[in-house]
Each structure stands twice: as C-alpha cells, then as structure tokens.
Amino acid sequence: TDLLELLCQKSGLQVLVLQKATFDAGAVASLVEFLEKNQKLKKLDLSWCVLRATGFKPILECLSRNRRLEDINLSWNDISDLRDAPTKEALDSSKPPNIQSTEDRE
To answer: Is the pTM of this model over 0.85?
Structure first.
C-alpha cells in the first residue's frame, strides 16, 4: 500500500507493471485511487496477481470508467465468474484497443 501511495504522487507515470503483486483490500483501494487520479497512464499490467472476482471488482469498475488507458493486461487472474456480470459488460463497452485476459488467450 505504501508503494501505491507513492505512485499516487507520480502524476506523469505512463506505464505501471504490477505483475505477481499481492493485493489486500487496502492495496486495491489505493490502486483504484491511483487510477482515478492519474491522467497520463497508458499501460497497466495486473497479470498473475491471483486476484479473485470479489477483490477485482472495484478495479474493474474503475477501469470501465477510465478512457485514457490503451493497454490493460488482466491475464492469469481468476475473474472468469465476472464474464456475465454488469461489471464485465461495462468493461467490454469501454474496452481499450488492447485488453488481455486469460480467457482471450485460450
């Protein structure tokens, strides 16, 4: 969480790779806050974070409102049960040009 708090202060950050990061509820909240505040981020990699749908939901909801991101990697997270959920539909409707998930790779 301390790292994400520092990232919130870096307004010019354009690429954020958090592969294999561990997220508790506080870290998820900090990441959402960062994504909402950052105006420059173009690429986000959250692959292999072992996030489940319940923990991932706030992130997905935030991503569905984010129009700046061009490349999002969500692969190898257990979010398959969000396939038919309103959150997944919202994410699909605002999908950036390059969004990757594990399901896309099968």
So the answer is: no
